[in-house]
């Protein structure tokens, strides 16, 4: 059985030279849109891998449906959600809780709605 995440296992951290292509290393200064940069998309997918299978399944469906349509604001909101623990994230994904505090902004709520309907 093959590992569906195998293509993303050897990604270098931001700012390091990638063996996936030639040219200068990408940095945060490189402001190309998320959807036009396959390396940035792969890093986001890698970061979305979770310890709970249920979260992994939700993210796989989400990326299959929305990956190429995500705006930079969506990626920022998704990144904020990925900073949560697996259990807190699952509570939000399953609508057991709603975003509070710093997470209660329109970008996070929009991405959360996308995740819930994916």
From TrEMBL:
GO terms for cellular component: cytoplasm. It is found in: Cytoplasm. It comes from the Bacteria. Pfam families: Sdh5 (PF03937). Keywords: Chaperone, Cytoplasm. GO terms for biological process: succinate metabolic process. Its main location: cytoplasm. Gene3D superfamilies: Flavinator of succinate dehydrogenase (1.10.150.250). Residues 27-40 have a biased composition (Basic and acidic residues). InterPro entries: SDH, SDH_sf, SdhE_FAD_assembly_factor. Residues 1-40 are annotated as: Disordered. The keyword Cytoplasm applies. The keyword Endoplasmic reticulum does not apply. Belongs to the SdhE FAD assembly factor family. This is FAD assembly factor SdhE. It comes from Paraburkholderia humisilvae.
């Amino acid at each position: 059985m093959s590992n569906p995440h195998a293509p993303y296992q050897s990604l270098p951290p931001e700012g390091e030279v990638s063996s996936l292509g030639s040219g200068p290393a990408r940095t945060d200064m490189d402001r190309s849109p998320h959807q036009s940069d396959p390396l940035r998309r792969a890093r986001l997918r890698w970061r979305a891998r979770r310890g709970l299978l249920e979260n992994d399944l939700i993210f796989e469906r989400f990326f299959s449906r929305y990956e190429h349509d995500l705006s930079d604001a969506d990626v920022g909101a998704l990144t904020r959600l990925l900073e949560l623990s697996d259990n807190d994230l699952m509570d939000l994904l399953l609508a057991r809780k709603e975003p509070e505090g710093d997470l209660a902004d329109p970008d996070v709520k929009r991405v959360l709605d996308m995740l819930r309907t994916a």
